[in-house]
Design a protein that fits this description.
Layout (H helix, E strand, L loop, with lengths): L13 E10 L3 H12 L4 E4 L8 H4 L20 H6 L9 H14 L6 E2 L4 E7 L4 E6 L4 E9 L22 E3 L14 E5 L3 H13 L2 E6 L5 E3 L7 H9 L1 H9 L19 H14 L15 H18 L3 H7 L11 E3 L2 H4 L5 E5 L5 E4 L3 E4 L2 E4 L2 E4 L8 H4 L2 E3 L6 H4 L18 E3 L12 H22 L3 E4 L1 H17 L28 H13 L5 E4 L27 H6 L6
Parallel strand pairs: 1-2, 1-6, 2-3, 4-17, 6-18, 7-16, 8-9, 8-16, 9-12, 10-11
Antiparallel strand pairs: 4-5, 5-6, 13-14, 14-15, 19-20
Helix pairs in contact: 1-14, 14-16
The structure holds 3-acetylpyridine adenine dinucleotide (N01).
Length: about 575
């Protein structure tokens, strides 16, 4: 099931002391390293994979591509980088994003500080020395003042423990750990379990190769066409001329990326106007479809109008009415993460593609030759588990992170993750979480969310050095208030109403907690800016006089932009008595 090749031998590194150790060399780890080096800090990055890129290193399944437009799904910290890189398509394929990640690593000379094929297994805070001891599966034991978790929000694959897995004679793949050499499904009977983003992207491509394809669907998915296209030199020239303005505007948007957003309520439009608006938004495609009206994720009646429209589209595409019915979701539109596809529904018109509903009669077991559901055995040569991830917290759980008094982070988070601003957790001094639970993270464009956290952390660490502070740690009551606020705000959104990986309910045994901050990226950024300007309000800094003074702002200036659009209007919040940040 894994993509790993045998890593080269190397001696273990023991006893070295760094200013910072970063766990992970995806976009978060790479940018953090760049900033640490800019500040003159010594740093080591440990990366489990054999190269940079994180998500884009592991998720090599057929059809994998980004669902945020390439021009915006990229680093924005370097104007030169923006100008020199040319994206080939509106939505970049996985291979191109990985090439971009490698380009960034080379251009900013990051590799010599990264150790690949090395998984961090433990991080332990030494209360006397006020530093972290970090251990890896290659025998490394190093120390660092700061331990920075850049482990990704969707990096721990969810592998349901179906009965009889070991009986199945064919290969079982997981989309999140795809073999690097690729998989040839030609002439095979293939089963795909799941219908989330990974499945929606891979199913049309697998169907082109396979002799037969059986999709096991537990919950029908909402997906919008990508209308992907090649980016012409003329388009790139105009876009690049306006890049700085686009980047700045994006920072003021609820998702951290720019797209046309109609703040008018759907319920105030006539049915004819709504249809016209939805047709136009559908024709633009992608995640911006949800920007057709401002109340779609807040008012169920408004949501019903877009859901009805989208169900109409599904029925107009899928020829077999029984299959079309099964493919029509009955939950809130956009409640689970909206998918973006190319030819997903059309694939079900192919004669060799079958949809099996496992919503009421779950997968019973794997057999030697296939999968059993409701007394029927579906014969398969290979199975693809597109079953997602233990989102937001799964990657932390894989590392034994021990803070003050021997408490582990997993123990502290047993009833749900607790972190101030999603960036640090009380009891774990000098431990930083990049896009941790309680920050916008997956509800924003990930790279922008990463950059904002990294810039904030860089200014924080720079300040600590300026004033001689030895440690920083959230005040428990401020953390509690933030966690409560994150939950309160989530109740305003219809997104909190269904079972999804946002609330952890896609994997058994996890508490139901809405984990990302849904109050909107710019509102969150404003809060972070205020915390910093106020001398790191809500944090205890130890070790120097004047430690809670306002810092010298080195990197966060670019995040001090006006809020262009709130995702949750103050009026909506007031109506439900949810405190604004
Ligand atoms: O995972 P998912 P994903 N029996 O959790 C089903 C990002 N991403 O890898 O909905 C049967 O969304 C599960 O069913 P249900 C993006 O943020 C981005 O597809 O829980 N089925 C669901 O259908 C995305 O949201 C991109 O009832 C089982 C599916 O497996 C996130 O990653 C591309 C099951 C899992 O869907 C995760 O996407 C890919 C079981 N026991 C991913 N267990 C882009 O940028 C689970 N399922 C485009």
């Amino acid at each position: 099931m894994t993509a790993a090749t045998t890593p080269p031998e190397r001696p273990a590194e023991v006893g070295t002391v760094f200013d910072a150790v970063v766990v992970g060399a995806g976009f978060a780890g790479m940018y953090m390293l760049h900033r640490l080096r800019g500040l003159g800090f010594s740093a080591r990055v440990f990366e489990a994979g054999g190269g940079v890129g994180g998500t884009w290193y592991w998720n090599r399944y057929p059809g994998a591509r980004c669902d945020v437009e390439s021009m915006q799904y990229s680093f924005s910290f370097s104007e030169e980088l923006d100008q020199e890189w040319n994206w080939s398509e509106k939505y970049a394929p996985q291979g191109e994003i990985l090439t971009y990640a490698n380009h960034v690593a080379d251009r900013f000379d990051l590799r010599r500080h990264i150790v690949f094929d090395t998984r961090v297994t433990a991080a332990t805070f030494d209360e006397n020395a006020k530093c972290w001891q970090i251990e890896t599966d290659r025998g490394d034991r190093v120390r660092a003042k700061f331990c920075i978790m850049a482990v990704g929000c969707l990096s721990a694959p969810n592998r349901p423990r179906f009965k009889g897995l070991e009986d199945f004679r064919g290969p079982i793949y997981h989309t999140g750990e795809w073999p690097h050499q690729g998989v040839d499904f030609t002439d095979l009977s293939v089963g795909v379990i799941g219908t989330g983003s990974s499945a929606v992207q891979s199913i049309p491509i697998i169907a082109q190769q396979a002799a037969s394809l059986t999709v096991f669907q537990r919950t029908a998915t909402w997906t919008v066409p990508a209308w992907n296209e090649t980016l012409t030199p003329e388009y790139l020239q105009v876009a690049k001329a306006n890049y700085p303005a686009l980047r700045a505007k994006a920072r003021g948007r609820p998702t951290g990326f720019y797209f046309p957003f109609n703040t008018q309520p759907a319920l105030e439009a006539s049915p004819e106007d709504r249809d016209r608006q939805y047709e136009e938004a559908w024709a633009r495609g992608g995640l911006p479809f949800l920007g057709a009206y401002g109340d779609l994720l807040f008012e169920k009646a408004a949501n019903d109008t877009i859901a009805d429209f989208a169900r109409g589209k599904i029925r107009s595409i899928v020829k077999d009415p029984v299959t079309a019915d099964l493919l029509c979701p009955d939950n809130v539109f956009g409640c689970k993460r909206l998918c973006v596809d190319t030819g997903y529904f059309e694939t079900y018109n192919l004669p060799h593609v079958k949809l099996v509903d496992v919503s009421k009669t779950p997968i019973e077991r794997f057999t030697a030759q296939g999968i059993g559901v409701n007394g029927i055995e579906y014969l398969l040569d290979a199975v693809v588990c597109a079953t997602g991830f233990a989102a937001m917290t799964g990657s932390f759980d894989k590392i034994r992170i021990t803070g003050r008094n021997g408490l582990t982070l997993s123990e502290k988070w047993r009833a749900g993750p607790r972190a101030y601003l999603g960036i640090a957790s009380a009891g774990f001094p000098n431990l930083f979480l990049i896009t941790g639970p309680g920050s916008p993270s997956v509800l924003a464009s990930m790279i922008q969310a990463i950059e904002q956290h990294v810039d904030w952390l860089a200014d924080c660490m720079g300040h600590m050095r300026d004033v001689g502070a030895t440690s920083i740690e959230p005040i428990l009551s401020d953390e509690d208030a933030w966690v409560e606020h994150v939950t309160d705000v989530s109740t305003v959104s219809l997104r909190s109403t269904c079972s999804s990986w946002y609330v952890g309910s896609n994997t058994p045994g996890r508490p139901r907690v809405f984990m990302p901050y849904i109050g909107g990226f710019p509102v969150y950024v404003q809060k972070c800016n205020e915390v910093m300007s106020g001398g790191f309000e809500g944090f205890v800094l130890e070790g120097a006089p004047g430690r809670n003074a306002a810092p010298q702002v080195r990197y966060t200036e670019r995040w001090r932009v006006p809020i262009d659009i709130d995702v949750i209007s103050p009026a909506a919040v007031a109506a439900r008595r949810v405190p604004m940040v």
